[in-house]
Design goal:
The protein is α/β, with parallel strands linked by helices. The chain has 12 helices and 20 strands.
Length: about 425
Amino acid sequence: MAKKKQGTAIVVGAGIVGVSTAYALQTAGFQVTLVDRVGPCAGTSYGNAGAIVDGCTPNAMPGFWKSVPSMLLDPAGPLSIRWSYLPKILPWMIRFMQESRPERVEHNAGALKNLTGAAVADWGRLMKSAGLQHMIEDVGWLKVYETDEGFQATESVRELMTRHDSKYQVLTADDIRDLEPHLNPIFKHGIFHNKSRFLPNPEKVVHGIADAFKHLGGEIVIADISSIREEEDGIAAIGSSGTIKADKLVLCTGAWSKNLAGQFGANVPLDTERGYHLMLPVMAEKGLSRPVLHGEKSFVLTPMERGVRLTSQVEFAGLEMGPDFTRIRKMLPLAKKMLPALNTEEQDAWLGYRPSLPDSIPVIGPSPNNPNVIFAFGHQHFGMTLGPTTARLVRDIMIGKEPTIPLWPYRANRFG
Ligand SMILES: Cc1cc2nc3c(=O)[nH]c(=O)nc-3n(C[C@H](O)[C@H](O)[C@H](O)COP(=O)(O)OP(=O)(O)OC[C@H]3O[C@@H](n4cnc5c(N)ncnc54)[C@H](O)[C@@H]3O)c2cc1C
């Protein structure tokens, strides 16, 4: 590896967090090798809803646990668990419950908002710099509610967003119709995040950033990294294509980060909240203009370039078990009711792995054991949003610049 002004770096994992980081480091004067076991966008960054959200709501909210039994029992509900995985996920769940205490919720919301509040500007800078401005849309992010009760249940979330300056507008049925005239007019209430952005083709965006990185002289290597080792003169990543060495290494392996992070002193309770998508045919007319969440049923319809994407579900089943598309397929009639012109003929089905920590906050910062190994994983439901912001923070750490956001809430050893 040729030495550049800032030295050499390995970035492991080429999802949105990894490609954004590799691009930021190469731009800052590092000679970067981006390593992925499959290639860019092979993981969770492939199939998400593409929303860049100025949000701050952690998943563990006060009283959340009360709705868990009914969600689990509803066969078309958004939450499921493979019962054989329960013993494994139980400690994570207990920790998650602890994070729903009001003081923890305030802390977690503040830490999230510090990141998401910077995301739209960071996306703008990255897309401009990489020449990809045409791949991001300024259309906002809409949540719609059929019932007064469904909307009223969001009161604590709206109060939290207001306290943390996360911008939104409350919409009436008429406002919703103005924004999305082809939705079934059954929706009485809406919440509109007009500052949010939308990527109609997340996969193309990740590949576009990876191409821009290569154009700057960065290298992409296909290798499954099994261990990371400290050497006298830097860090070595050992994997299926041999040993790669550099001055520094950034770990961006999403839901697969636990074991590699553990090799550098971090015992992080990382697990996965699995999520699904179904691709439906492109709608030439009577479709949507932005991602729209059905508030009561917790699924999203998104007008992607390649068709309408139905995304939903949090499934606790770890990284090894195969997909079960039963629940998301049960949502098709609900989606059809929401958008009557929708063609529900399934084109493609996908399972993704949100990398999630119980406090809903990612890990960003140096490993406890070695300042030359930097962690950047655990972005749960906000990873697409937070890729470029995370990359900027990692770059600042690596060039010795004071990050604009205090990093202590994201430290790896916060779990004790
Ligand atoms: C259904 C669904 C909808 C979503 N919608 C949104 C949304 O609208 N907005 C939003 O902000 N977020 C959304 N998300 C979350 C978001 O997609 C993820 O948080 C994000 O993609 C995580 O990115 P990442 O780069 O950390 O991980 P990934 O994209 O999973 O990338 C990790 C990479 O690491 C590689 N890797 C793993 N282990 C190794 C190894 N040992 N050696 C080499 N390579 C390795 C993998 O091949 C992979 O390419 C959604 C998620 C799901 C499931």
